[in-house]
Write a structure and sequence with these properties.
By secondary structure, the protein is α/β, with parallel strands linked by helices. The protein has three domains: 5-42 and 218-302 and 443-490, FAD/NAD(P)-binding domain (3-Layer(bba) Sandwich), CATH 3.50.50; 86-93 and 101-212, no CATH class; 308-419, no CATH class. It is built from 16 helices and 20 strands. Strands 8-7-16-17-18-15-19 form a seven-stranded mixed beta sheet. A hairpin with a 5-residue loop joins strand 7 (88-93) and strand 8 (99-103). Helix 1 packs parallel to helix 10 and helix 1 (13-24) packs parallel to helix 16. The longest helix has 22 residues, at 384-405. It binds flavin-adenine dinucleotide.
């Protein structure tokens, strides 16, 4: 019997996941990817013997028994991976050089905070108690909300017990909470470390995942993670076409029937999934024909992850006084670094010394990143020489900034690399270089994703970070899985999954 077929636009983690689950459910799948490699933004690049990882800091579901772990098992990532759980979440130094440590273990963090300020015992225990509580909360990830039965909806009522927690901490800003500390150092450092404007719930979840060791780092980083999932896809019999930019989604009688590539070739299938950038999909590939007011509003007033200037450095030393952590070491600079016309008064540097695959023994890959203005870089790119000169100037300023804290490091630098929002846009097609799509806002909470279909268009789904606000690696693979569940339902067959 001829198998039904699915075309998947984009070979990022979402596309690979949709491909794997499509194959597990008896569909023929073809992925079309514009780049020459899989992974999308979940990638790394090698320069002069150093690997610069551009995505994996922490990944939810690395602990067996957690909700996302099942996806990693089924996609072939978990069986061979080696997980590193950090002791430190981040270190933030004050202007007079005093370090503030955020530990991943809530008990250790509590002990440390009490050592710094016993008089704040009440508020400290409230904080670490909330981190422990956050570490126990579960998220429904096994099926898309679109496929919920009445029973599933009833089960969701269970979540109501968590509503109070979400409400309390979602409505408290980090700045407001930090202001309750009597100790001025803790007050300032807590606020600065997590961003005074951000809601407490964000920090609590991140620290909760760390406390329960359910979101570790995968040794080998993005290349190792993507490589294992790409292998699973190919082992299942999937087809992947690289250097294949999709320019149009073919539509007949309001039904998606295939795609056209930049080289003019056309490919047809029973369903089309776009796991690529949302704006390109809706407005270029489909000419903005299939829209509703909510989608129009989002794209007219985008609230996106701010793009990055991402500096990779290879140094011929270990930098013993730069401790390994998820969020790196931040410290104030005596001379601000100017990026896209904006003064950056502090610097954050991350070391990959805990991953032996990132550099030779005795050497170290460092990453320094800043958020930046997309429009500035977009304009500058029209002047290639100025664009290059600006990149060089930033690298020099970053090295000077590191020299302030790590005297002698300048002479140890063997490799430098800098990616801008334009780099992300060029290699992955992500709109305005937004590497993680939409920020959460009042329209989109972590539990309410955008619609995976477009009004009036049949046999078509969107998946990935442009329909799952907040983005992220586990969300991408979940989104691929959910989209295939929706196709199975439409096709009147029960969804199945398997482990390699
Ligand atoms: C610096 C950085 C740090 C991060 N840190 C973390 C972290 O610690 N933990 C975490 O969970 N997440 C992290 N993320 C986010 C995470 O990597 C992404 O959210 C996730 O990988 C997105 O996957 P995706 O498949 O949905 O999208 P993408 O990776 O963008 O995949 C889309 C794919 O579509 C392709 N494509 C686009 N247009 C076309 C076209 N016209 N034709 C064909 N193909 C096309 C692209 O080339 C790409 O391969 C980080 C990301 C970055 C950049």
């Amino acid at each position: 019997m001829n198998k039904k077929s699915i075309i998947i636009i984009g070979g990022g983690l979402t596309g690979l996941s949709a491909g794997c689950y499509g194959l597990m459910n008896g569909y023929r799948t073809s992925i079309f990817e514009l780049h020459s490699i899989a992974g999308g933004v979940c990638t790394a690049w090698k320069r002069k013997g150093y690997t610069i990882d551009g995505a994996v800091n922490w990944v939810m579901g690395t602990r067996p028994g957690t909700e996302f772990y099942r996806f990693w098992e089924e996609l072939g990532a978990a069986p061979g991976w080696k997980i590193h759980n950090h002791d430190l979440y981040l270190v933030n130094e004050s202007r007079d050089g005093k370090p503030f440590f955020v530990y991943c273990d809530a008990d250790r963090f509590e002990e440390y905070l009490l050592e710094v300020s016993a008089e704040d015992e009440g508020v400290i225990k409230e904080l670490t108690g909330a981190i422990r509580k956050a570490s126990t909360l579960s998220m429904p990830v096994d099926k898309p909300q679109e496929n919920y039965s009445m029973l599933d909806k009833v089960k969701m009522i269970k979540m109501i017990t968590q509503v109070g927690f979400f409400k309390k901490w979602g409505n408290t800003s980090i700045g407001d909470f930090a202001a309750r500390f009597k100790n001025s150092f803790l007050r300032e450092m807590l606020s600065e470390s997590f961003g005074p404007e951000n809601p407490m719930i964000m920090a609590l979840f991140v620290l909760g995942f760390q406390h329960s060791k359910s979101a570790g780092y995968i040794i080998g980083g993005a290349l190792s993670l993507v490589g294992s999932i790409e292998k699973r896809y190919l082992d299942l019999g999937g087809e992947i076409n690289y250097n294949s930019r999709v320019v149009k989604i073919l539509v007949e009688n309001d039904r998606a029937v295939g795609i056209r590539l930049a080289d003019g070739s056309e490919h047809r299938a029973d369903w089309v999934i776009s796991a690529a950038d949302g704006r390109t999909t809706i407005f270029d590939m489909l000419d903005g024909v299939y829209l509703d007011e909510k989608v129009k509003r989002k794209y007219n007033n985008p609230n996106l992850f701010e793009p990055l200037v991402y500096v990779g450095l290879g140094v011929a030393c270990q930098l013993e006084d730069l401790p390994a952590s998820i969020g790196g070491l931040s410290y104030p600079l005596s001379k601000p670094i100017v990026i896209a016309g904006e003064e950056k008064k502090s610097i954050n540097v991350r070391s990959y010394c805990f991953d032996p695959t990132m550099a030779e023994q005795g050497k170290n890959t460092l990453v320094v990143q800043f958020t930046t203005n997309y429009d500035y870089w977009h304009k500058l790119k029209q002047e290639p020489e100025q664009y290059r000169a600006e990149k060089t100037a930033i690298v020099q300023a970053v090295i000077a900034g590191l020299e302030e804290r790590f005297p002698g490091i300048t002479g140890q630098v063997e490799m430098t690399d800098l990616a801008t929002p334009i780099t992300w846009e060029r290699y992955t097609g992500n709109w305005r270089g937004s590497y993680e799509g939409w920020m959460f806002d009042s329209d989109f909470s972590p539990l309410s994703s955008m619609r995976k279909t477009l009004p009036g268009l049949k046999n078509f789904y969107m998946a990935g970070q442009w329909v799952n606000p907040g983005g992220g690696i586990p969300t991408a693979v979940m989104s691929g899985n959910h989209t295939i569940q929706m196709i199975c339902r439409e096709d009147h067959k029960s969804f199945t999954s398997s482990k390699p």
